[in-house]
Write a structure and sequence with these properties.
600 residues, mainly alpha, three-stranded mixed beta sheet
Length: 600
């Protein structure tokens, strides 16, 4: 080679090598900056919420509640705008694929938070499903751990800080009332009753300890401290309950009774200022799709018809003579499908639900590569909130391992908990449902915290509903009545598409929506009433389950078709679960990329 050419070639090679090294360094630098920023932004949100800190197993601000004031809310929006500015200062073209995805998700989340500033009043801070009035006792009992004297003092501090928080809550309700946003009339007896129930028992009146007093006494008794110290703590707890918590709840109840007089029976979000626009925005946020209310309504009707046909096949299999509506009545009313509404009946339900979950634990290797480290317990909903709480729900474990995941079954009315639905319900709330998805998510490594602990309702609830179907494909639901129960629960979610859009877009009344569920499902009427009342106070949320399930199933079937023998259900589930919660459109992109890689 000519020496000059050789020199040029050598110089070019060095230049290219240098450029490659620099490019790699630039990417590493930008990735490091991005990962640090993701952590910072997540922590900034955590710092603003003592309640969330406790959920994460932290004991900072352990005697405090969240600031509910409009000023704090505006500070949060200003912080969000600043966070978006800092995020966009990154050069996303230099990010790794994982960090580019995190960038995209964080940017969309921040943009959505700012866009929803327009709808900041379009909600009911106090309702029968959630609110600070019911959260205070539930949170203290289930989340506030007492491992030391200082933890007990923080518990007392939280009791003493209830008045400030309740005053803010009343101010927020009043601001909404002035804007014409008041919960429907049916909500008020529930929330007033729940609030008054908290003040029943000692030290508020003679008798057994109230739930909070019993909880505090039990936690203090378990401390490694001398009896004199424990007695002082108990006395201070009693005083905080009587002098701080009781007046705060009394004032809240008084305000709610006045507000109740202004409430009416209009139930849908259409009644809000710009209600149609709000509901469309809520649907988009909940489903992470562009489906319209009309499209969702039609999809629901189609799914209801399909599931009814599958139920008719089971009806023939068990030899029932009559039509589907008569079969519904039989399934709804026959005593063989219910345990007694006694302590023994309730314990039997909990024991059998636990056994179902234990059986599924033994078969997880057939479905999953990654499995959660956290354990799962089955627990009855506490008496103080069982009257108004949902049928069943899941609470994720503490990230630090101090608390297992909890599957709560509401056993207040055993007629609302048929045995034939027990199997599907356990799979949905427990394993392979919410516990698999949420526990795995927060145990992920190399994924930013905002993704591990964040969520998209359609993804999370879609996975829960999909998890009811998977055991059927494994050969479970051997009892045809249990398989009917699975279909009944899927039918319930299909009906949600119809009634949620009916209530909030088509101006259905509460009674029309209840009648639709009673006519088209085998569930108890009490189920239908409670469900419709839930959908009314949480516009769009109920649409997430079926929309999410259908997408997860659609993507799985696409992968099966295109991959043939290369398809592995364990790999598919790993793909769905090991990136944390995702919008459905992003999940679809992820699955399509996996199909392409696997085919190559």
């Amino acid at each position: 080679m000519n020496p000059i050419v050789k020199l040029i070639a050598g110089a070019t090679g060095c230049l290219l090598l240098s450029m490659a090294v620099n490019a790699g360094t630039d990417t590493q630098n930008e990735d490091a900056k991005a990962e640090a920023l993701f952590e910072t932004i997540f922590n900034e949100g955590v710092e603003r919420s003592p309640i969330y800190q406790t959920y994460l197993g932290m004991k900072t601000n352990y005697d405090q509640w969240d600031d509910l004031s409009p000023a704090h809310e505006q500070e949060g929006l200003a912080l969000t705008r600043d966070q978006l500015k800092r995020l966009r200062a990154l050069d996303k073209s230099k990010l790794s694929a994982d960090n580019a995805l995190s960038y995209r998700l964080m940017e969309e989340d921040l943009q959505q938070d700012l866009a929803f500033e327009r709808w900041r009043l379009h909600n009911y801070p106090v309702n029968q499903m959630f609110g600070m009035h019911s959260m205070v006792p539930s949170f203290l009992i289930n989340q506030h751990r007492v491992d030391s004297v200082s933890d007990a003092e923080a518990y007392i501090g939280r009791l003493n800080n209830v008045p400030k928080m309740m005053k803010q809550l009343v101010a927020n309700l009043d601001e909404r009332a002035k804007a014409g946003i008041i919960a429907p009339k049916f909500v008020f007896p529930y929330v007033i009753s729940d609030s008054e129930n908290i003040l029943k028992g000692a030290p508020f009146e003679k008798g057994e300890d109230s739930p909070l007093m019993a909880d505090f006494r039990k936690k203090v008794a378990a401390l490694e401290a001398d009896e004199k110290t424990k007695a002082k703590l108990i006395k201070r707890g009693e005083q905080a309950l009587k002098k701080s918590l009781k007046p705060a709840y009394t004032q809240l109840v008084s305000y709610l009774k006045k507000l109740e007089k202004k409430a009416d029976t209009r139930d849908g979000a259409w009644k809000f200022p710009d209600g149609a626009d709000f509901y469309n925005a809520a649907l988009k946020k909940t489903t992470t799709t562009d489906l319209t209310a009309d499209e969702i309504h039609t999809l629901g009707l189609e799914e209801v018809a399909r599931i009814h046909d599958e139920m008719r096949a089971i009806m023939k299999k068990v030899g029932f003579e009559g039509n589907l509506q008569e079969f519904f009545v039989f399934m709804r009313d026959d005593p063989q499908f219910y345990y007694d509404n006694t302590e023994a009946g309730k314990q039997r339900y909990l024991d059998e639900a636990t056994a179902l979950i234990d059986t599924m634990k033994g078969r997880l290797d057939e479905l999953f590569i990654t499995k959660p480290k956290a354990d799962l317990l089955v627990k009855a909903v506490e008496p103080f909130r069982e009257k108004s709480a949902g049928k069943a729900f899941y609470q994720r474990p503490a990230p630090n391992g101090t608390r297992p995941g909890m599957y709560y079954a509401n056993l207040y009315d055993m007629k609302a908990m048929p045995i034939y639905q027990m199997e599907a319900l356990a799979y949905h709330e427990g394993i392979p449902g919410h516990h698999m998805q949420l526990a795995i998510s927060q145990e992920l490594t190399g994924v930013p915290k905002f993704r591990k602990y964040g969520g998209y309702t359609a993804y999370t609830e879609g996975w829960g509903l999909y998890s009811e179907l998977v055991p059927k494909e494994m050969g479970l639901y051997q009892d045809p009545y249990s398989d009917f129960g699975r279909l009944a629960m899927e039918l319930w979610r299909a009906c949600r598409l119809v009634v949620d859009t009916g209530l909030h877009a088509k101006k259905w009344t509460r009674e029309e929506a209840i009648d639709y569920l009673v006519t088209n499902t085998p569930n108890a009427k009490s189920d239908s009433v409670k469900a419709i009342e839930r959908y009314i106070v949480m516009p769009s949320q109920a649409t997430a389950y079926k929309i999410g399930m259908l997408k997860i199933l659609e993507l799985r079937e696409r992968a099966k078709r295109e991959l043939g023998d290369k398809f592995d259900i364990r790999q598919y589930h790993d793909l769905v679960l090991t990136a944390g919660p995702l919008p459905l459109n992003v999940l679809e992109e992820r699955v399509n990329a996996w199909i392409k890689r696997t085919k190559a």
